[in-house]
Amino acid sequence: MSTLNNQINQEQFTPTQRTSIKRVSQRGHYERQLIYEILDEGLICHVGFVVDNQPFVIPTAYGRVEDKLYIHGSPASRMLRSLLTGIEVCVTVTLLDGLVLARSAFHHSMNYRSVVIFGTASFVQDADEKLEALRAFTEHIVPERWAEVRPPNRQELQGTLVLSLPITEASAKVRTGPPLDDEEDYSLPVWAGVLPLQVIAGDAICASQQRFAIADPRLHTGITQPHYIQNYTRLPVESE
User: Fold this and answer.
1) Which pLDDT band holds residue 9 (cuts at 50, 70, 90)?
2) CATH number, domain at 82?
3) Residues paired with 195 in a beta bridge
4) Owning domain of residue 47
5) What is the pLDDT of residue 4?
6) Tens digits of residue pLDDT in 61-98
7) CA distances from 116 to 20, 87, 201 (A)
């Protein structure tokens, strides 16, 4: 029985008071593979911490190596210097997958995948682990890049502070699918569905305009897609 419990613990994180999903609990997930997949797909994490009763949330790049999340920066960074004192930290990563357009304003939502990690970061002193963390940062941005670029020199290594956060207390929250309207609203003659969103590299932006919104499966026949959905874009507006 203990062997089976160990296998289960390896496959998923045990929910804690901090990581248990309470609001819409059915969207909560604790599977290790899913959490790692979200972390590996994301590019930016937000690091939350409190110093002298003042909360801070700082966006930063990160890298993952197995069950550790690494963040780095200048030794002068207030965030890194604060985390070195051993204070508790909360790290979040969110992937936005789509805008969920319901028939009522109240039920508009978003499809997303998110991860929350709690813990205490520690200073990476071992030279090999520090170099591996910096490799992970680079590979996380663009895979196979580390083999081509010049590795950090001694001065750059000395001028970079790397912290390690063990991924031991974590959970994911995921929303997928069409809008969930009140039953009486499904008869309203209003277009409803999901407008997919994704991060796309520059040369693919034009192709992205060919994507189509996904109509709600319960949309009544004859309701056409409105112009603000057909022409929707996240591209910056060009000045004249």
Assistant:
1) low
2) 2.30.110.10
3) 99
4) 10-96+112-175
5) 41
6) 999 999 999 999 998 898 999 999 999 999 999 999 99
7) 10, 17, 26
